[in-house]
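quick q for whoever's on today - can somebody do inverse folding on this one?? i tried earlier but teh output was garbage lol. tokens:
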């Protein structure tokens, strides 16, 4: 019983570690998308580019946030239950 229990504990630890990596990678992607969208909006207000690129990046940011929430929230729910 010792080895399967140790394997289970190590597996749970690695699953938690991998979900932490996924969480931080999504945070980094969202951070970059947010500032990229702000850059394009700033260029739009300065008259250098059109608004559609900034809107595209903001929509991409929203979709990416929803994907991150759909992945991370079930993990947290599983840990709490």
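ok took a stab at it. sequence:
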């Amino acid at each position: 019983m010792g080895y399967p229990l140790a394997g289970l504990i190590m597996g749970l630890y690695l699953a938690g570690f991998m979900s932490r990596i996924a969480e931080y990678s999504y945070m980094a992607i969202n951070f970059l998308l947010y500032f990229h969208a702000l850059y394009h909006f700033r260029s739009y207000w300065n008259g250098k580019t059109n608004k559609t690129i900034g809107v595209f990046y903001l929509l991409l940011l929203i979709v990416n946030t929803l994907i991150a929430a759909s992945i991370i929230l079930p993990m947290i729910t599983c840990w709490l239950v």
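fwiw The chain has a mean pLDDT of 69. also Residues 34 and 61 are 7 Å apart (CA to CA). so keep that in mind when u check it
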